[in-house]
Design brief:
Elements: H1 4-17, E1 23-28, H2 41-48, E2 52-53, E3 57-59, E4 62-68, H3 71-77, E5 88-93, E6 98-103, E7 113-119, E8 123-124, E9 128-129, E10 133-138, E11 144-152, E12 168-170, H4 187-196, H5 201-206, H6 216-225, H7 239-259, E13 308-312, E14 315-319
Antiparallel strand pairs: 1-7, 2-4, 3-4, 4-5, 5-11, 6-10, 7-10, 8-9, 11-12, 13-14
Helix pairs in contact: 1-7, 6-7
This protein binds a DNA duplex through loops.
DNA sequence: CATTCGTCCTGATAGC
DNA sequence: TGCTATCAGGACGAAT
């Protein structure tokens, strides 16, 4: 279940293996994986074949590769060759189960292989011939690929962590807020927007327009770490508590990143196919009925400190009843 | 505008 | 055994 740390692991892998390479061929095995490319499969492939990968950038859970367009496409639109063509990027979202795998051509097709990009042959002085396929594998098809144009970022800073030199972002990611690991993330902006909302804090954390990169797992982990109940109202939230929560988000995601991403089954695999192992250090998510690791050390530990599971926003929420108590009469 | 809800998907698992 | 129901959940568009 890729959230920010997992997508960042993929981004780094792609930067290592795909940067600077030209796309020689595109093979779409399931059109549903390019659903968001409104102009269809032919247009998708036409935009990619001959294009060169200039960068690998991420904001929140969106990942994109700005492209140098195919030579003839650039020439057609602007015969002078000046910057008349809108910059385009190959956008990717992994959804629930998406993977981007760099593989040698000829290796067996994955069961859920949806799109295959064949990359230019490169003989690396150290690594030898680089794998020539970038495969998009996705069991549940919540994720996908599409080609889109890029627009200026509203704050003039480059798109997220990926250190794109240009302050450009794909249209479809322009409404996505900065994530807590982004150098341009502003806590003050986040807090101001948070206070204007009339909703619960977990809903806010999952709203990618407010703060990005956080999904159900890291939301529960950060709320646990900051000892905050998921339904706590945002409009009266104290600044110090919000700061503690964002710090917790940052902390848990950085630790996951160090571990190479979280994985609960074989669905999530990084760009080279190896699984993460951060699940061993989860404190709340998926631990229903198990003792809260923090409360267990307390001499007053009792059955009130078993992790509870509740349905919230049509998804499971895990929390400790003792250190994340429910609001009483709407007051905290 | 802000907020909530239904939809898209497959496969593992539980229950009859 | 074999069927059906449930669950997992990110993002988006429609509805309120």
């Amino acid at each position: 279940m890729p959230e920010l740390p997992e997508v960042e692991v993929v981004r780094r892998g792609l930067a290592r293996w795909v940067l600077g390479r030209t796309i020689d061929d595109v093979d779409i095995l399931d059109v549903r994986s390019i659903r968001r490319h409104g102009l269809g499969a032919e247009d998708f492939a036409g935009n990619l074949v001959g294009a060169r990968v200039l960068d690998v950038v991420r904001r929140g859970k969106f990942l994109w590769m700005p492209l140098a367009p195919p030579a003839e496409a650039g020439g057609t639109a602007t015969s002078g060759g000046t910057s008349g063509v809108a910059p385009v990027a190959l956008m990717a979202h992994l959804g629930m189960s998406g993977q981007l795998l760099v593989k040698d051509a000829g290796l067996p097709e994955e069961k859920h292989l949806r799109v295959r990009l064949t990359l230019s042959a490169v003989d690396d002085p150290d690594a030898g011939p680089l794998p020539q396929e970038l495969r998009f594998v996705d069991q549940r098809i919540f994720g996908g690929l599409f080609v889109t144009s890029m627009v200026s970022t509203t704050d003039g800073h480059p798109g997220g962590l990926g250190e794109s030199p240009l302050p450009l972002i794909p249209v479809e990611a322009s409404h996505i807020a900065r994530d807590p690991l982004d150098p341009a993330f502003s806590f003050d902006d986040f807090f101001a927007k948070l206070r204007r909302r009339r909703t619960g804090i977990k809903r806010a954390l999952l709203d990618q327009g407010l703060v990005s990169g956080i999904g159900n797992i890291y939301a529960d982990e950060a709320l646990w770490a900051a000892k905050v109940h998921y339904a706590r109202p945002t409009d009266v939230m104290r600044r110090a508590d919000a700061l503690r929560l964002i710090d917790a988000c940052r902390d848990v995601m950085l630790r996951a990143l160090d571990a190479g991403g979280t994985s609960f089954d074989s669905l999530y695999v990084n760009v080279n196919g190896s699984s993460g192992y951060f699940e061993r250090s989860l404190n709340a998510y998926g631990r229903e009925g198990e003792p809260c690791t923090r409360c267990a050390a307390d001499p007053l530990f009792d059955s009130l400190s078993l992790i509870r599971r509740e349905m919230f926003m049509n998804r499971s929420s895990f929390s400790c009843p003792r250190c994340q108590p429910k609001p009483r009469n709407g007051r905290w």
